[in-house]
Amino acid sequence: MKCLIISDSHGSEDELQEVIERHRSTVDAIFHCGDSELKHSSPILHDTYPVQGNVDIPGEFPEDRAEDVKGTRVYITHGHLYNIKMTHVPLSYRAEEKGARMALFGHSHVPTAFEDNGVIFVNPGSLMQPRSRPEQTYALAFFEANGEAQIRFLERKSGEELIDLRQSFPANE
């Protein structure tokens, strides 16, 4: 399974569309972790799984969702309702409730990937307003048939991988 993970594009339609089109034909799913500032009817979000961010139009998207992609359960939320800037624990509980192997979130604009209790947590950073580093980022997640996973972070303009952020995770036992 391979998926594209985007967050915090903050109304930047051309940039968002460019990243989606760059990867659309090579991924199994496209997730937007909120703060797109677009309407649900936007053609840019066609065939994607968006969630509601704290600056999105209220009620435009679901607050969270769980999707099964090629046998991998993915939980998606923006993170603001889980106090994600302070701790990942409430999000961890929710991901466990949903039976997720991967939990996707945004809100902090900081790209990160880590594993806790068998769940891989991924924040792709911000497509337009980065914090903690200068690059505007998004992520690709790869899950092998044996359950091993790799998260790669890419720079928005070039699509080049930021090697220092790459994370690999063994299969769950």
TrEMBL record:
It is an enzyme of class 3 (hydrolase). It comes from the Bacteria. Its EC number is 3.1.4.-. GO terms for molecular function: hydrolase activity; metal ion binding. The keyword Metal-binding applies. Residues 1-141 form the Calcineurin-like phosphoesterase domain. Pfam families: Metallophos_2 (PF12850). InterPro entries: Calcineurin-like_PHP_lpxH (IPR024654), Metallo-depent_PP-like (IPR029052), Phosphodiesterase_MJ0936/Vps29 (IPR000979). Its cofactor is a divalent metal cation. Keywords: Metal-binding. Belongs to the metallophosphoesterase superfamily. YfcE family. This is Phosphoesterase.
